[in-house]
Amino acid sequence: MKSLHRTLTILACLCLVAQTVRHAYVLWLQPRTSVLDRFDRPLKGEIAAAGSLDELLRRYEPVRREADRIKAERRAQEPRGDVVGPLDTEPFKSEAELREAITCWEEKAREVRAVRFYWLVGALLAAAGLVASARGARWLGTTLLVVGFSEIIYWTTPCFMSGGVQEFDRLVATKLVLSALSIGLLAAGVRRLAVFTENA
After folding, report:
1. Which residue segment(s) compose the domain that 6 sits in?
2. What are phi and psi of 111, to 5 degrees?
């Protein structure tokens, strides 16, 4: 049992430390600009600087109204067909970019909630495993610890897309904090179960 605990601890520690370092890199050190940024339209910078979903929505509404107005005019001119025209022209291009930014923001907000919930579930399972082990049910305790830390590690894995949206940074910061807390939880479990002591 002791060798199993040691092996699982080393694997969990490897995963948690590696992903914590990755989160810190993405949040604080990863370059976010390109030499090509000066050729992009200013809308990209406005989207990246948006501080809330409401701010993106305020930018989106007038562009959407203008795109809808142009579509209606074109349909009136061509009543037999659904001729909208090229979608890579304004205001259609801006409308598509803003729509994508809003969708991305909402997706990251949902992911932040899911990460927090499932991390808490994993932490509760791991805590139950520690209690079970302390009461002598070592196999049940080990099982709960493995399930709990698997849940924790899975939900705090790194995000592999870069983000210009504030909500992406919030997701990475959440995962960074929870990964660091997980390392602390793992250390407490190792100490409580005396995993690396020879006489236990």
Report:
1. 2-32+41-193
2. -70, -35
Is 143 inside a domain boundary?
Answer: yes
Can you give the pLDDT at residue 53?
Answer: 86
* Rounded-to-integer distance, Cα 178 and Cα 162, Å: 20
Asked if residue 61 is part of any domain, the answer here is yes
Reported confidence tier of residue 200, pLDDT bands at 50, 70, 90 = very low
Please write the tens of the pLDDT for every residue from 42-101.
677 777 778 888 888 999 999 999 988 888 887 787 766 555 556 667 888 888 888 988
Q: Positive or negative CA dihedral for 161, 107, 94, 41?
A: negative
Residues 6+ away with beta carbon under 8 Å from 97: 43, 44, 47
Structural domain count, the chain: 1
Instruction: Write the Ramachandran bin of 66: left for phi over 0, alpha for psi from -120 to 50, otherwise beta.
Output: alpha
Cα-only R_g, the chain = 25
Is residue 199 included in any domain, yes or no? no
CA–CA–CA angle 154, 157, 162 (5° rounding):
145
